[in-house]
């Protein structure tokens, strides 16, 4: 197996819409279980989960033994964070809260080693021995690493959506991703991604991305909403998260059992 063939890029080349989920538990065991469950891709969330790079390293190792393609969502569009994620073996990165083409260009540059002839100069720092190069055992790693990276740019505000075409045109932006939670908040409907104004913005983003041939993804809380998003034209979708699914099922079990657990008080003469 060629470790420099990006598995997420391969998923997008298939006929079916790739199905993913979010990893919020921050543990290798949960990540491995989700990877074995049948998801096509999984997002290791470093933005909203209190994990460090040692945790992320182990989670990527756990996912490496499963069929699911890992995606690392960085905490921010930051040169050092990007470098560290790549060095621990992340190949597909998601960049949160990108607002314009300049920020997208900086993100792409940080994923690339400096190479002659690149339209976007690379700013990634070089190290010879790390997990990404299989500890220096892949002899052509440095020469091929730039082509192995897949960059997903998140659009989470009306201002970012207004710049969709300009952001998508940046060389090295491989896909777009609408963040419906932050988008709903920035449209004045926090937590209500089903609001008609939010849905209209989500549908418009898919239409415009399709028009320029740029893959676009999204996450949603329920199968029904994901079906709606697929109908809008989204190319890859994620449902909920490991923690979200666990809590939803836990709440369902509790609601089903609690009434039958109530103690009855018998009255009478003792």
TrEMBL record:
What are the alphabetically sorted keywords of the record?
A: Lyase, Metal-binding
Q: Where is the HpcH/HpaI aldolase/citrate lyase domain?
A: 21-246
Write down the superkingdom of origin.
Answer: Bacteria
- Work out whether the entry's keyword set contains Lyase: yes
Q: What is its EC number?
A: 4.1.2.20, 4.1.2.52
UniProt keyword Metal-binding, yes or no: yes
Record's InterPro entries? Aldolase/citrate-lyase_domain (IPR005000), HpcH-HpaI_aldolase (IPR050251), Pyrv/PenolPyrv_kinase-like_dom (IPR015813), Pyrv_kinase-like_dom_sf (IPR040442)
Q: What is a single Pfam family found in this protein's UniProt entry? A: HpcH_HpaI
Q: Which GO terms describe its cellular component?
A: cytoplasm
Point out the signal peptide segment: none
Reactions this protein catalyses: D-glyceraldehyde + pyruvate = 2-dehydro-3-deoxy-L-galactonate
For this chain, one GO molecular function annotation is: 2-dehydro-3-deoxyglucarate aldolase activity
Output this protein's name. 2-dehydro-3-deoxyglucarate aldolase/4-hydroxy-2-oxoheptanedioate aldolase
Q: Which organism is it from?
A: Janthinobacterium psychrotolerans
Could you read off the lineage of the organism from its UniProt record?
Answer: Bacteria, Pseudomonadati, Pseudomonadota, Betaproteobacteria, Burkholderiales
């Amino acid at each position: 197996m060629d470790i420099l063939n990006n598995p997420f890029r391969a998923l997008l080349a298939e006929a079916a819409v790739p199905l993913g989920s979010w990893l919020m538990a921050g543990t290798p065991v949960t990540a491995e279980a989700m990877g074995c469950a049948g998801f096509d891709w999984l997002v290791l969330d470093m933005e909203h989960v209190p994990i460090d790079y040692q945790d992320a390293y182990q989670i990527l190792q756990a996912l490496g033994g499963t069929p699911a393609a890992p995606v690392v969502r960085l905490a921010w569009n930051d040169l050092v964070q990007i470098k560290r994620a790549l060095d621990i073996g992340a190949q597909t990165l998601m960049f949160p809260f990108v607002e314009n083409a300049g920020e997208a260009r900086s993100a792409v540059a940080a994923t690339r080693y400096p190479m002659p002839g690149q339209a976007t100069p690379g700013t990634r720092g070089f190290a010879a021995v790390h997990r990404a190069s299989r500890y220096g055992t892949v002899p052509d790693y440095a020469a091929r690493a730039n082509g192995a990276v897949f960059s997903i740019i998140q659009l989470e505000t009306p201002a970012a959506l207004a710049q969709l075409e300009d952001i998508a045109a940046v060389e090295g932006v491989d896909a777009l991703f609408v963040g419906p939670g932050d988008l709903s908040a920035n449209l004045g409907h926090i937590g209500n991604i089903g609001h008609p104004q939010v849905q209209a913005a989500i549908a418009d983003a898919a239409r415009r991305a399709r028009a320029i041939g740029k893959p676009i993804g999204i996450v949603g809380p329920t199968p029904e909403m994901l079906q709606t998003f697929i109908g809008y034209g989204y190319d890859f979708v994620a449902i909920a998260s490991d923690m979200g699914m666990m809590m939803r099922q836990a709440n369902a079990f509790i609601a089903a059992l609690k009434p039958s657990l109530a103690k009855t008080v018998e009255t009478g003469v003792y």
